[in-house]
Amino acid sequence: MATPLILASASSARRSLLDNAGLDYIAEAAQVDERQVEQEVPEAERTPSSIAIHLAIAKAKAVSMRNPLSIVIGCDQTMSLGFELFHKAPDLSSAKQTLQALRGKTHHLNSAVCLVRNNEVLWNHLSVATMRMRLFSDAFLDAYLERNGSRLLGSVGCYQLEGEGIQLFEAIEGDYFTILGLPLLPLLEELRKLGVNHA
After folding, report:
1. DSSP-H helix ranges across the chain
2. β-pairing, 120-133 with 106-117?
3. How does strand 5-7 pair with strand 26-27?
4. Which of helix, strand or coil describes residue 127?
């Protein structure tokens, strides 16, 4: 019998990526306090990349505790400008502040993925996308916020590249899957090694 595969996420974008890749899995949201996990990372290791990995593992372990025989995919993404870590904006005023901070600068999306079985980490990986925002005007920013509204609050960067958010950028380095928060190619390769992905 095949080993059950679980995605420890409620993200529709991540589910869509796995669906399109033809994987047989179920999705089960992990209930973890992300800020608490961040605080538990030793201060000397508390980088945006390290936090993304710790969060991915914490989410996978939370689901693995309930499903010890399954292989659980954990994933998380942080956004950083230098060493500054950003979180999702709670409202449009905060979203405007985030976009003003990113305007004309280069930030990074740090996407972590891991595999856990019986609370043991089998594998983890981090991919980074480099995102360079253009110097857009205040008038464009205000109109962008008005047109897109509260849906921007679901993205840590207050943009959605698959929509109008692409207008904010002048250059992007990194693959599409990393930007969406699930480094799919290395994950599929590791699942093939474990015999879970028979593609």
Report:
1. 12-20, 34-40, 48-66, 92-102, 138-148, 176-180, 184-193
2. antiparallel
3. parallel
4. strand
Q: Which of 107, 83, 113 is nearest to 158 (CA)?
A: 107
**What is the pLDDT averaged over residues 171-175?**
95
- Where exactly are the structural domains of the chain? 5-193
CATH number corresponding to 5-193: 3.90.950.10
Q: What is the C-alpha end-to-end distance of the chain, expressed in Å?
A: 17
Q: What is the pTM (predicted TM-score) of this model?
A: 0.91
Q: Contact at 8 Å (CB) between 182 and 75? A: yes
- pLDDT tens sequence across 33-50: 988 999 999 988 899 999
Torsion of Cα atoms, 167 then 110 then 197 then 18, to 10°: -40
Hey, which residues are catalytic here?
Answer: 76
